[in-house]
Amino acid sequence: MDRSAHPDLAPLDPTLLLSFVAVAETASLTRGASRLGLAQPTVSLRIKRLESALGRALFERGPRRLTLTPAGEVLLGYARRILALSDEVRARLGEAEMEGTVRLGTPEDFATTHLAWVLARFAASHPRTALAVTTDLTLNLLERFRSGEFDLVLVKREPGGGGGGVRVWREALVWAAAREDWFASDRVLPLVVSPAPCVYRSRALEALQGAGRAWRIAYTSTSLAGTQAAVRAGLGVTVLPRGMVPPDLMVLGAAHGAPDLRETEIALLTAEPLARPAARLAEHVVRSLEGG
C-alpha cells in the first residue's frame, strides 16, 4: 500500500499501544498508569491520542471500571501481538543465541500484580533463557542477594534509599478496607500488616502517629493474598499501593478521615559480575517499568 496516498494511516506508536494494553488489562487509568510508573494524566492523554489516530472510542467509562468497546477488543489482540513481535525482533537480531538461567528475587505482591507481564514478554523474546523467580519479603531478599543467591533482586525501599540499585517503580500508597467507617470514630484502629521491617507497615504507623491516632496490630501476614483476605473479612485496614487494591475493597482517603501516606519505591539491584542473560533481563525490566 502506498502510505503517501493515505497520510491518515501512519504507523501506530508502540508507546501508545503499551499504555492501551496496561489500561485494558487493569480496567483502570489509575492502575494502568501505576503499572507503567507514569502519572495518570500522561496515560489518559496517550489513550486519547490513540483513539484520535484510530477514529474510534476504545473504552466505555463505567462508575468503577473501564470496559473495552468492540473496537478496543479488536485492538487489544493486535496490540499485544505488535508489542510481542517488537520484542522478538529485537531479541532475534541481537540475542538469538543467548541462553542461560537468570535468578530473580522479588516481593510476592509486586510479582503478582506488575511483574508477570514484564517477564512474559521477556520469555517470549528470549526462548532459550530460563527464569528462576523467587518471591519473599524484602528483608529476606536482601540477605539472600548479598549471599549470592540472586543475579537480580527487586526490593521495596524508602525513596532515594541507600544500597545502590536503580529505582524502577514509584508506589503511591493508600489505605484499603472493606468498609468506609474505620476512621470515623476515636476507637483504636486495627491494622493488617506485614512483619517488621516493612515499608508499608512503617508508612501506616508513621501516618497514624503523626495524626495522633491510636492503633493496634490486629493481623500479620507475609503475603498479599493473606493481607487482602484479612481486610476483606473485616479484621482491619491495611496500606497497599493503589494499583494493588482489588475492586471489592475500598480506598480510604481524607474524606474518610484517613491521614496521608508518603510514597515508596521499588529498586532493582544487580549482582557483579552479571552474565549476559541477566544483564538483558535487567535492561528489559528497567525499560518496561520506567514508563514503557
DSSP summary: helix tally: 9
- Secondary-structure element series: HHHEEHEHEHEEEEHEHEEEH
C-alpha end-to-end distance: 29 Å
Helix content: 40-55%
How are the strands of the biggest sheet laid out side by side? Answer: 4-3-5-12-6
Number of strands: 12
CATH topology (level 3) name of the largest domain? D-Maltodextrin-Binding Protein, domain 2
What amount of the residues lies in strands? Answer: 15-25%
Structural category:
alpha/beta
CATH architecture of the largest domain: 3-Layer(aba) Sandwich
Net shape: flat
In total, the number of domains comes to 3
Description of the molecule:
By secondary structure, this protein is α/β, with parallel strands linked by helices. It has three domains: 3-90, Arc Repressor Mutant, subunit A (Orthogonal Bundle); 95-171 and 266-289, 3-Layer(aba) Sandwich (D-Maltodextrin-Binding Protein, domain 2); 173-262, Periplasmic binding protein-like II (D-Maltodextrin-Binding Protein, domain 2, 3-Layer(aba) Sandwich). The protein contains nine helices and twelve strands. Strand 1 (59-61) and strand 2 form a beta hairpin. Helix 1 (14-26) packs across helix 3 and helix 2 packs across helix 3.
Quick rundown:
With 292 residues, this protein is of the alpha/beta class.
Write the layout of secondary structure elements.
Layout lengths: L13 H13 L2 H8 L3 H15 L4 E3 L4 E3 L1 H25 L5 E7 L1 H18 L3 E7 L2 H9 L5 E6 L8 E6 L1 E5 L11 E5 L5 H12 L4 E6 L3 H9 L5 E4 L8 E3 L11 E7 L5 H14 L3
Parallel strand pairs: 3-4, 3-5, 8-9
Antiparallel strand pairs: 1-2, 5-12, 6-12, 7-10, 7-11
Helix pairs in contact: 1-2, 1-3, 1-4, 2-3, 4-5, 5-9
